[in-house]
């Protein structure tokens, strides 16, 4: 009698973590079976206690690995763990005075599947890879979408061609019209791609964060750079010479397909950006950008979608091609209509479907 089955996609390639995950699934299924058959209170509480102890030990090990690797999702991962432990503790207390049904096992199964999909899957290592044998740079490469399907051997080969460079906040990484000889991957941090108008006004073309790449167009056509790239904060980049990257891609068809798929997505995004600039007013363009941020960076929470880091008015103005004053008025209008409200350093988007219908018609 089971409520959750072990699936191949639950495999992350770290032996202890995989064993812990299997054990958690077994305990959840045992709890489900005992609840279904109406076992005694003491039996149910004993399974919950075993589940709590096993999960707490596993979470501590998992969090230690994440700290060692410098995972950017550590805080969210840890919060999810605490939510699980708090719920199990509450059930152990409640079961002293009231009888619980098999819904608690179903909750645990749903939590496990959702947590794995949103959190643990990001820790996945290539098949037959030992966590102790993987170099930090190889781990970084495996988390980058265009390289995610590569074997450890392929990752090691790629790593041997890469250089790691660091830039301080505000540094110019690329300048327009520079010779285009390198491919860049953002290992950690955030950069902005910009051009400047004749009067010196900055126009933001895009943002790049962990796992994104740039410098790709010149790899294909050999022409000089068409835009400037600026470090938004302290940033760590991986670089590869044009000839080395083209040669490497030719030998790795899966990475080439991921590369071209990403280029196709960017072209579609550019077309959508042009469309919004042509057909939408400032309010519409700002709203459209908020919806993009919600899609790309937002987290679903009670009451809407939380965008953790609120863009400045200057950044929004640069992105939508408007003055800061016009952007300020648009943001005020979005707040007045109840679509957004400030939440810490970010803001909460409510009624996103309604806003999308209003903007896109």
Q: How many angstroms separate the termini?
A: 50 Å
Count of DSSP-assigned helices:
13
Low-confidence runs: 126-134
CATH class of the largest domain: Mainly Beta
Count up the domains. Answer: 3
Mean pLDDT: 80
Q: Kindly report the CATH topology of the largest domain.
A: Jelly Rolls
**How helical, in percent, are the residues?**
40-55%
Which architecture of the largest domain does the CATH hierarchy give at level 2? Answer: Sandwich
CATH superfamily of the largest domain: Jelly Rolls
Radius of gyration from CA coordinates: 24 Å
Give the spatial strand order of the biggest sheet.
1-8-3-6
Beta-strand proportion? 15-25%
Helix-strand sequence: HHHHHHEEEEEEHEEHHHEEHHEEH
Instruction: Specify the overall morphology.
Output: globular
Describe this structure in words.
- The protein is an alpha+beta fold.
- The protein folds into three domains: 115 residues, Hemerythrin-like (Four Helix Bundle (Hemerythrin (Met), subunit A), Up-down Bundle); 145 residues, Jelly Rolls, CATH 2.60.120; 81 residues, Winged helix-like DNA-binding domain superfamily/Winged helix DNA-binding domain (Arc Repressor Mutant, subunit A, Orthogonal Bundle), CATH 1.10.10.10.
- 53% of the residues lie in helices and 16% in strands.
- The protein has 13 helices and twelve strands.
- The strands form three sheets. A four-stranded antiparallel beta sheet has the order 1-8-3-6.
- A hairpin with a 2-residue loop joins strand 9 and strand 10.
- It starts with 14 loop residues before the first helix and ends with a helix.
């Amino acid at each position: 009698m089971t409520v959750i089955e072990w699936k191949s996609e639950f495999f992350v390639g770290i032996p202890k973590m995989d064993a812990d995950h299997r054990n958690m699934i077994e305990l959840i299924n045992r709890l489900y079976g005992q609840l279904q058959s109406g076992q005694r209170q003491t039996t149910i509480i004993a399974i919950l206690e075993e589940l709590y102890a096993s999960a707490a030990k596993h979470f501590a090990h998992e969090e230690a690995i994440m700290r060692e690797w410098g995972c950017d999702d550590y805080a969210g991962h840890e919060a999810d763990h605490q939510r699980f432990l708090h719920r199990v503790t509450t059930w152990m207390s409640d079961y002293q005075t009231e009888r619980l049904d098999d819904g608690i096992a179903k909750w645990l199964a749903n939590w496990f599947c959702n947590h794995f999909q949103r959190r643990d899957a990001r820790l996945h290592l290539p098949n037959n890879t030992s966590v102790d044998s993987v170099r930090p740079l190889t781990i970084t490469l495996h988390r980058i979408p265009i390289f995610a399907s590569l074997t450890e051997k392929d990752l090691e080969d790629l790593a041997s061609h890469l250089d790691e460079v660091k830039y301080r906040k505000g540094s110019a990484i690329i300048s327009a019209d520079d010779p285009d000889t390198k491919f860049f991957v953002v290992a950690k941090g955030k950069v902005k791609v910009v051009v400047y108008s004749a009067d010196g006004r900055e126009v933001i073309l895009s943002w790049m964060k962990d796992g994104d790449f740039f410098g790709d167009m010149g790899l294909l056509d050999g022409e000089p750079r068409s835009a400037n790239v600026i470090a938004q904060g302290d940033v760590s980049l991986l670089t590869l010479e044009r000839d080395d990257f083209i040669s490497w891609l030719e030998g790795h068809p899966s990475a080439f397909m991921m590369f071209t798929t990403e280029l196709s997505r960017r072209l579609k995004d550019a077309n959508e950006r042009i469309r919004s600039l042509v057909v939408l007013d400032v309010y519409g363009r700002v709203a459209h950008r908020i919806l993009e941020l919600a899609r790309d960076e937002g987290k679903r929470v009670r009451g809407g979608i939380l965008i953790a880091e609120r863009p400045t008015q200057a950044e929004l103005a640069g992105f939508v091609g408007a003055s800061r004053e016009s952007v300020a008025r648009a943001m005020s209008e979005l707040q007045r209509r109840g679509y957004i409200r400030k939440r810490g350093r970010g803001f909460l988007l409510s009624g996103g479907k309604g806003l999308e219908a209003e903007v896109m018609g």
